[in-house]
Amino acid sequence: MGNIRPAYVKRAARLIFEKYGDQVSVDFDKNKELVAKVLNIESKFLRNAIAGYLTSYAKRFMKTELEEEATEEVEEEES
Predict the structure, then answer these.
(1) Got the DSSP string for 15-48?
(2) How many CB atoms are located within 10 Å of the residue 6 CB?
(3) What percent of the chain has pLDDT over 90?
(4) What is the pLDDT of residue 1?
(5) Which of 25, 9, 14, 18 is nearest to 59 (CA)?
(6) Residues 6 or more apart from 71 whose CB is under 8 A from it?
(7) Residues 9-22: pLDDT tens digits?
(8) At what angle do helices 7-19 and 28-38 cross, to 10 degrees?
(9) Helix (H, G, I), strand (E, B) or coil at 2
(10) Is the Cα torsion angle 64, 32, 41, 20 positive or negative in sign?
């Protein structure tokens, strides 16, 4: 089973993804540096929680993009 994260962690990660989506990656360490740079958080636990959710959010976003592209290619081939 996965971790259930608080709403404030999800909200912060989504806001970072919307503003800095081009800098977000699927690498946790890079996202951790981005969170530390963007947000002024002293809590290591909170920074890591936001970076972890941001990483999984980015992976999910990229996966759906790839699936949409594959679906479009199949539809074009069928036409």
Answers:
(1) HHHHHSTTT--S-HHHHHHHHHHHS----HHHHH
(2) 11
(3) 67
(4) 64
(5) 25
(6) none
(7) 999 999 999 999 99
(8) 90
(9) coil
(10) negative
pTM for the full predicted model: 0.81
Does the pLDDT of residue 30 top 70, yes or no?
Answer: yes
pLDDT tens sequence across 33-56:
999 999 999 999 999 999 999 999
Residues in the chain: 79
C-alpha angle 50-52-53 in degrees, rounded to nearest 5: 65
H helix or E strand, kind and range, residue 4: none
Output the six-digit token pair for 28. 């946790």
Separation of alpha carbons 14 and 64, rounded Å: 16
For the chain, the average pLDDT equals 89
What amino acid occupies position 32?
K
What are the structural domains of the chain?
7-78 (1.10.60.20)
